[in-house]
Amino acid sequence: MGGMQPGKDLEKVPNPRKGSVSSETNTVDVQVQRRLLRKLDRHVYPILFVIHMMSFLDRVNISNARIQGLTADLELEGNRFNIALFVPSNMIIRHVTPCWYLPGLMFSWGIINMSMGFVHTYGGLVVLRFFLGAAEAGVFPGIIYLTSMYYKRHEFQIRMSFLFCSTQVAGAFGGLLAYAIAHLDGSLGYRAWRWIFIIEGAATAVVAVIAVFLVVDWPEDCRFLTKAEKDLLKHRLASDGTDCARMDTLNKQACKRIFSDAKIWLASFIYMGVGVPGYSTTFFMPTILLEFGYKAEQAQARTIPVYVVSAAGMLITGFLSDRYKHRYSFIVAGCFIATIGFGILLNQGTLSRDAKFAAIFLVSLGGHIGNPMALAWLSNNVSGHWKRAFSSAFQVTLGNIAGIIAANIFLSDESPAYPTGYGTAFAMLWVAGLSATAMFGFMLVENRRRDAGKRDYRLSQPEEEIKNMGDDHPSFRFTL
Predict the structure, then answer these.
(1) Membrane-crossing residues (predicted)?
(2) CA 76 vs CA 66, 80, 197, 343, 386: distances in Å
(3) Which phi and psi (to 5°) does residue 212 adopt?
(4) Are 168 and 77 in contact (CB under 8 A)?
(5) CB burial string 400-413: b at 16+ within 10 A, e below
(6) What is the DSSP annotation of 139-182?
């Protein structure tokens, strides 16, 4: 990555630090880079979009199964449904070839998900949910790290938002699919909720086999780029302010820099905080809509426009965020949007069903805007191989506590008002907002100190330390 010298094929690529480049050469260079970006987009993201979509679909389809008879058949009274959602995720990160690792995990969780269609006891469901979480553990951190190795910092947010749209497609498609599968109730002696797991799990396993041939490897090993294109990719990333900010050796000092980095901790709390409203609406939206007075099939169908609006919001804010090279304000804006929604739901007493349904749109939109933003913001502000590898894994691992919180705050005996559920989700939303404010302030001050030369003393350290300090290098500037 950063600091690697371009090869001979890059001799015609202009150095952005030099002013003696003709406008014609600049135009050619821009066109070449655009062609490279389009090629990257065609090869890197489509299959990862599908993998992430299937992962999310298989993780949350239990919410669709719940209102199709799962609760009654497996006697999930009290908080048993919540406990079945309480599964570990993103706890295992392994460093293997992406084109085998990601599809391998996908195939495993597809089979596990399909098996849930044949479970007959509450204990069996919990065990399978546990293994589902374990099989999905390394997928998302791996996707973040892999994709960050292909794009410059201010090209990453819109693509991360696009990737996160897969969760909205999964939610909408899951509701639509569950609506269709409901008509299979009784076929071959199986209830509708069983068919949800069987069909979606089998589809995941089939896609996993195809994905082996489509998932890209690391940039230096990928087969879809020519030698000249690989050199150009290295040149682009090196010119993105990371050429000096490397961390290629994992030693004691590097570990100290990683674990003491406030950005990693704050960004993880942002991701966790905005994740609670996101997971809450995903896990419990069909149930909440059912209690608004809709029939089961109507509740499934009405989840779709909520996801469509959230997806559009993520794409628009992702585009604007990259355009203006800014993240913080968009995260806080999402917090305010969701706050309005929570205000309505916490005071829903005499409100109409339509008003409460509108509040679900606001909560989902506000929460989901911040999810991809938090991930891209941290990725933008850490540099070096080991720093990026650790930060993405840690952020997703800590952030997935949101799933644990969200799964256990909507208590059946508080239906339909759910004060604990909505109140806790609202509080966690502003854990994210305050963490974002702290992270913004920290990096703003740090950028100013570096501009004033107050971090140049770090360059007096031994050369091997200077080459391995990552984003602590005085030349690195943070994205606000």
Answers:
(1) 99-120, 126-148, 160-181, 193-216, 264-284, 304-321, 328-346, 358-378, 390-411, 423-445
(2) 9, 5, 17, 30, 44
(3) -55, -35
(4) no
(5) bbbbbbbbbbbeee
(6) HHHHHHHHHHTTS-GGGHHHHHHHHHHHHHHHHHHHHHHHHHHG
In 22-113, which ranges are E strands? none
Residue 300 CA to residue 286 CA, distance in Å, equals 6
Domain boundaries, the chain: 37-472
- Of 72-86, 117-131, 215-229, 255-269, least confident by mean pLDDT is 72-86
Q: Is 284 exposed, middle or buried (0-12, 13-18, 19+ CB in 10 A)?
A: buried
The Cα 301–Cα 177 span in angstroms is: 9
What phi and psi, each to the nearest 5 degrees, are found at residue 362?
-65, -45
Q: For domain 37-472, give the CATH number.
A: 1.20.1250.20
Higher-pLDDT residue of 462 and 83 is 462
Identify the band that residue 67 occupies on the pLDDT scale cut at 50, 70 and 90.
Answer: low
Note the pLDDT of residue 21: 37
Dihedral over Cα of 114, 118, 120, 123: its sign: negative
Positive or negative, the CA dihedral 145, 147, 152, 155 is negative
Distance CA 13, CA 438 (A): 40
Rounded mean pLDDT, 445-452 = 95
> CA–CA separation, 410 vs 284, rounded Å?
8
Q: Over the stretch 154-189, which tens digit does the pLDDT of each residue have?
A: 898 999 999 988 887 877 776 677 777 777 777 777
Angle 39-43-46 from CA coordinates, rounded to 5°: 125
Q: 335 pLDDT band (50/70/90 cuts)?
A: very high
